[in-house]
Write a structure and sequence with these properties.
Blueprint (H helix, E strand, L loop, with lengths): L27 E9 L2 E9 L3 E8 L8 E5 L9 E6 L6 H13 L2 E6 L5 H18 L1
Parallel strand pairs: 3-6
Antiparallel strand pairs: 1-2, 2-3, 4-5, 4-6
């Protein structure tokens, strides 16, 4: 099917670029094992066209028990949107991390964080994950 151009502007009516940048047209993946104060985690990331899928699990016990998704704001003044796809409705690490990274990197994030945290180690784990995401996104 041929593409149809309705207008010759650089953005469509929603303010979204009609074609992705060249570096955003492929799929790339990477992963690592992190040791955060004795907690060993496996992190896998799949970077897709305009989104990123991240799974975080205890090392040796990879599973997907919850998943959250977040999309950045489409235009200035709008708020970002996030939700839990499945898993616990409240206190979802997956949704919180997806929302944080979506706002920070201005792209869609789908996150499955299967690591139970508390107030003491949660900040350390979040910082280590954010540092790794920053280096690889």
């Amino acid at each position: 099917m041929d593409a149809v151009t309705l207008n010759n502007t650089s953005k469509d009516t929603n303010g979204i670029l009609p074609k992705a940048k060249d570096e955003d047209t492929g799929f790339t993946s990477c992963g690592t094992h992190l040791d955060i104060k004795g907690r060993k985690l496996t992190v896998r990331m799949l970077r897709m066209n305009l989104g990123t899928l991240v799974t975080i699990s205890p090392q040796g016990n990879e599973s997907i028990n919850e998943m959250g998704v977040a999309c950045p704001a489409v235009c200035a003044g709008a708020s970002s949107s996030s939700t839990t796809l499945f898993g616990p409705e409240y206190a979802s690490n997956s949704q919180r991390l997806a929302d944080l990274w979506s706002k920070r990197y201005k792209r869609q994030f789908i996150v499955s964080c299967n690591v139970q945290t508390n107030d003491i180690d949660g900040a350390n784990i979040e910082k280590a994950l954010s540092d790794w995401i920053c280096a690889n996104v």
